[in-house]
Every structure is written in C-alpha cells, then in structure tokens.
Automatic annotation (TrEMBL):
UniProt-recorded name of the protein: Glycerol operon regulatory protein
Taxonomic lineage: Bacteria, Bacillati, Actinomycetota, Actinomycetes, Kineosporiales
PROSITE patterns: HTH_ICLR (PS51077), ICLR_ED (PS51078)
GO terms classed as biological process: glycerol metabolic process; negative regulation of DNA-templated transcription
GO molecular function ontology, one term from the record: DNA binding
Species of the source: Kineococcus xinjiangensis
UniProt keyword terms in alphabetical order: DNA-binding, Glycerol metabolism, Transcription, Transcription regulation
Domain IclR-ED residue range list: 67-246
Length: 249
C-alpha cells in the first residue's frame, strides 16, 4: 500500500487550523502552531490561496475561504481522543502519583474529556465535562499556543492569573519554544499543573495532557517543576500523538 503524502497531510492540518481560527493567522503563527519551517508553511499557504481554499486579507493574515466553512467541525472527536489517551493517562498517573487530565479546546474554554484520579485514598472530584479558563491553566496555554491569544477580557481568578494580553502572548511563545506549559496558583489557589500538546497525523494540536495537583507536590520553592514531571508528561503526550499518527512525535 502506498505511503501517505506528507505535503497533503500538512496542507490538511493547515486547513483545519485556519478553520479553527476565524480571525486568521500570519505565516509565523501558522508555522509555530504546526511545528513547520516558515518557508514550508508559506509555500503551502500560497498554494492553498491559489486553489481557492484559503484567503489572504490586506493585513497579510490567512483564513479559510467560505467554501471550506464546514471544516470548522473537522477537529478530532473528543471520544476518539479519550480512547487513544486513556491507557497513557493511567500510566502517567501511576508514574507520577498525581491526577491526570486530557482536554481539548472548545468555545469558551478548555473541555476536560478524561480525568484519572490521583492514585491515593484522598477524596477527589471527577472533572470530566468541566470547562476551564484557557488563559489560566497549563492545558489551556498548550492549546492556545497553537491557535493564538484569545480575544476579549481575561478574567482574574487569583493574584497570579495572567490578565494582560501581551503577557499571555509572551507566555504562549515560551510554551511553543519549550513544548510544555506550567501554571501555579493561576486558576485555583494551591493548585498547579504541567501540560504538553497532543498532535494528530498532520501535526495539528488536537488536545493536551497534564498532571495536576498541590503546588508543593509539583514545583519546588522557586516554582520550577519537580524532577521528572516534565519528561513524564511530554513522554505521554508524544505516545498519544504517535497513536494518532503524528510522525514527529
């Protein structure tokens, strides 16, 4: 059976990214979201413009054309993401001793589609179905890093919540560069999380996985992740991505 054609997979990933970003994206933003070189991304975008699948506005931003409006629903089904991630989530919780969540970006925030309890006897509440503020949690930062800063007012939940758009853009740039995100006391006082992106076959970020727990358990006194946690989360994220067909995971 013939192998897949990488350029077509990348074009499909760009189309889905455009469909999920109605405000449009510049070449650099699109390249960062998919982990591609700027030149490669620009070439694919120009080709898509040429065939009428993508439009470029006067400001130079690219967006899906009206003929591809139905691609707005082309994201990975949450149930499929959960089914591919469940074993890796269980393993991550066992290895770290912390709770693990799988989430996707939805209108209005971050939807938790799977939650593995911390493997101890403490009382915990199921978070499946909860919608978290994207700007105030590590899961959200990972997902926003692939789509851009959200528009509108950024609600403050604690004294550490990022509420300035410029500060959030800088934080998302750091997430793209390092490949993982951290939040400490940004949504719920005393809670922290470390998250990494999950990608599909075309390289599009379709979800995120995190470890979540008490601040003292996840970070040291200087608010740096405790040894082993970041590699463990990133390993789980790459494993799920490979199961979804991502070649570079």
């Amino acid at each position: 059976m013939p192998g897949s054609i990488q350029s077509i997979e990348r074009a499909a990933a760009l189309l889905k990214l455009m469909a999920r970003t109605p405000g449009g994206l510049g070449v650099v933003d699109a390249a960062n979201a998919l982990g591609l070189a700027k030149g490669t991304t620009h070439g694919i975008l120009r080709t898509l413009v040429g065939v009428g699948f993508v439009e470029q506005d006067p400001a130079g931003r690219y967006r899906a054309s009206a003929t591809l409006a139905d691609l707005a629903e082309a994201g990975l089904d949450a149930n499929e993401l959960r089914s591919r991630a469940v074993n890796w989530a269980d393993s991550l919780a066992s290895r770290t001793g912390e709770a693990v969540r799988i989430a996707t970006l939805t209108e209005g925030g971050v939807l938790v589609v799977h939650h593995v309890f911390r493997p101890d006897d403490s009382q915990q509440e199921m978070e499946v179905g909860d919608v978290l503020p994207a700007h105030a949690c590590a899961l959200g930062k990972v997902l926003l890093a692939s789509t851009g800063t959200p528009r509108g007012h950024l609600v403050r939940y604690t004294s550490r919540t990022i509420t300035q758009p410029l500060a959030l853009r800088r934080a998302l740039t750091a997430v793209r560069e390092q490949g993982w995100a951290l939040d400490v006391d940004e949504h719920v006082p005393g809670q922290a999380s470390i998250a990494a992106p999950v990608r599909d076959r075309g390289g599009l970020v379709v979800g995120a996985i995190d470890v979540h727990g008490a601040v003292d358990d996840l970070v040291d006194p200087r608010l740096r992740p405790r040894a082993g946690l970041v590699p463990a989360v990133r390993h789980a994220a790459r494993a799920i991505s490979r199961d979804l067909g991502a070649e570079s995971a």
